[in-house]
Fold this protein.
Amino acid sequence: MAERKIFAGPRVRRVRLGLGLTQTAMAEALGISPSYLNLIERNQRPLTVQLLLKLASVYKVDLDALQGEGGGLAGRLREVFADPLLAGEIPGDQEIIEVAEAAPNAALGLMKLYRAYREQAARLSDLSDLLAREGHETSIAGTRLPIDEVRETLQRRPNFFARIEDAAETFVARLGPGDELPGALKAWAKNEHGIVVRTLPVHAMPNLRRRYDRHSMRLFLSERLSPFDRTRELAMEVALLALGQEIAAELEDLNLSTNEARRIGRFELARYAAHALMMPYGAFLTAAQRARYDLDVLRSRFDVSFEQAANRLTSLARTGTPGIPFFLMEVDHAGNAIRRAGAQGFPQARFGGLCPKLGLHAAFLQPGQVLVDRVEMPDGAAFLTLSRTLEGPQSGFGERIRRTAILLGCDLSSGGDTVYGEALPGAVGTVLAGTACRLCERQGCLSRAEPPVTRPLGLDEMVTGLSAFDFQ
C-alpha cells in the first residue's frame, strides 16, 4: 500500500520555532538535509509517515496535532467567508483549512475583525435608515468607495486587456507615426474629429491636467506636465475616440457595481490604452527583450518617461508572447499606497509591499537613482526589485506637492534575464523584508514599525531588544 503523504509545513515550522531550533539543527536530528526541511516547511514536499515517526520520537511531538485540519477554527472561518462581501474569494475549503493550520492566531484576529465589521455595518445601516427617514440620503453606499472597488478589481487580475492591445496595434500601424507620435496623434484628432490641441499656461488652467471643450473642439493640456505626460494625455483622448468600443467591452468584463466605479474604471482603461498606443505590444516586447528590460534604454527608444515604461512592463502578458511577469506599486513620501498592478494580479500575499526596508521608501533619499535589491520574504520567496522616484507635475515657487516613487519587481528566478540581475548584491546584501510589520515575525528588526498580531509582546524589565516592539 502506498504510504500516506501529509503536507504540514506550517505546523512543522511552529514546532521548530517553539523549540528555538534552526533548520540546520532540526534537519540533522531528523536525518535529512536543511534544503529538504525548507521545502517541507514551505509545503513543497510531503511529511511522510517515516518523518512523522521520527518527529514523534526525537521531539515528543503529538502526531494528531501534525495531522489535524484546524478543527473548529476552520469551521468558524467558513462562516466569515460565507458572508456576501467575501463570497467567491476562496474557491474551496482547502485554503480555509490551510489558513487555520498555518496561522491560527491570525485566523482568530480575522474573526475578531469580522465581528467588529458586522457590528459597525449594523450601526451604519441603522444610521442610514435614520438619515433617510429625515430626508437626508447618503451618497456613499456599501462598505467601499468606488475607487476602492476599481483598485481591488484591477489588482486581482492580470494587467492585460487583449481587445485594447489588438486594437491599439492596428490603429498605430494604420497611423504610421514614425518617430513623431505626438504630431501624428494631433493630426489624426484634427483630421478625423476637428479637434485642435493646445498647451495652456498655469494661470489659465491652474487645477487641471487636461480639459476637452466639446463646444470649441479644443483639447487643452497643462504646461505643468512633462512632454511625456502631455503625450499620454493626448493619447488618452485619442484612445477614447478610436478605441471606444474595445474600452467599453473590457469595462463591461470588470463587472463594476456603480456608475461612479464604471467611470473611474473607464479612465483607468483609457490610461492603459494610451500606453498601448505609445508603446505597441509587439514592438515594445521585442525591444524589452533585446535590451534585457533596461528601462532607461526603453524610455529613450519610445520617447516615454521612466514611469510609463515601467507601467508598460507590467502588461506584457499576451498568451503565446509574454514578457517577464513584473509587478509594480507606487507610494508617496508619506507611505500611502497609490497603485498596485501586474504579475497576474498583484502578489499581495507573497510580497505585500508595506515593509519599511524596501528600496521603494529609501528611493526618496536618492531622487532619480535606480535602486536594485534582492528581497527575501520570511517564507523564502525571493524577488528582484527596482525602485526610483518619479518627477510628477512641475510645481511653482512655494508650492508643496506630493512626490511619489515606484517599485518594479519580479521573481528572482526571472531576474537573470534582466540587465539589473547583474547588479544584485550577494547574500550579505539581501534585504530581509516582510509583507507588513503586523504580519512579520522577524526578530530584532531595526525597521519594525508595529508589533506582529500573531505574537504577544515580550515586555521584560530586565531585557530590552533591538526592535522597538519586542515579542515572545
User: Anything to note?
Assistant: The chain has a mean pLDDT of 83.
